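Page 47, continued from p. 46.
Same chain as before, 398 aa.
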Amino acid sequence: MAYKFLDKLVETIDEHESWRLRDCLNLIPSENRGSTLMRSMFMTDLGNRYTAPDHFYRGTRFLDEIQAVTEEIARKVYRAKFADVRPLSGHTADMAVLLALTSRGDEIVSVHPDNGGYPGITHLGLGHLLGLKNRYFPYDVEAVNIDVPGAAKLLKSTDPKVVIFGASFIPFPHPTRELSDIGGGVRVFDGSHVLGLIAGGEFQDPLREGCSLLIGSTHKSLPGPQGGIILSNDEEAFSKVSSKIHPGIVDNIHLNRVAALAVALLEMMQFGKAYAAAVVRNSQTLAKALVEEKVEVRGSRFGYTKSHQVLLDYGPEEATALSHRLEKANIISDDGGRLGTSELTRMGYGPEEMREIAGIIGQVVRKRSSSVVRRQVRALVREFQEPKYVLRSVPRVS
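Result:
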């Protein structure tokens, strides 16, 4: 019986990898492709071991060193004085921030989920669970960004304990510098989507624009393992947040994940500038080419995008219907009308391919036969099977 289930499990994984990696264009902005070296870290003994800050477990001297080295690399990549790689996700990093810096009944300010804000920190998620009063930035829908005059007025008239920049839909830099000194509250940037761009010197630099904390997921534009990170140059704010991680939020930090993150950060140290610039270039090329294909794209007044995201200008029902048609054509997106270029860039696609992909998407929008489009997608995808901007294994010296 066990082998029957094992056979089914292995078969299903093989089918998934064959389809998603060799037949599909992956345009989900929340995903990326890890390098072979990074993925190999998951298969080590690290995944079976525990550590703890109080050294309750013995035999951890190498594990402790792996965490310390990874945090040192993170500090260098993001030019931060402090780093904590223990959060298991961007969401747990958000949770640590709110548990450390707020109390029940306090106000926090963020982007409303209707405007692309991350639902996990709003009245739909942690805001409700922690008894917080969620307030939301006024938003300029045409600019796809926070409305600065309206936000300044809000911050002056309220008393938030935490002000969170960053969002799930984020084609343009947020006005962190412009709003850094207005009103109270610790400034936090949730960079879950744009940490890879920030590492490469693109998009914006929150820790030098008035934010005390830069937090987020490590697997979106940053091509690392699924996990979270906290970065800061503010010792007081960092200490408060970091102190909440263990044992309140995370016990076992999954050292195989931490080692994999170290590899991804080293790849950003080595190749991040070129990678991040290529991501933004590909996004802008894709957006402009889609418009030429009569596909509606948001943010036209500002050049469509400065991130890894291209936001299609369709309502919820139409966007969902389009995502289903795209999937039938082996183009993987999400129901929000977001397209992401991080993974394609990581696999070596450039502007020429972005224009070709825009043409393929245009065919789907015009409802051309899915089977015809699938053949075009497969032919393109199979030309790009090796990740770029990656480190190779270094032979050990005996």
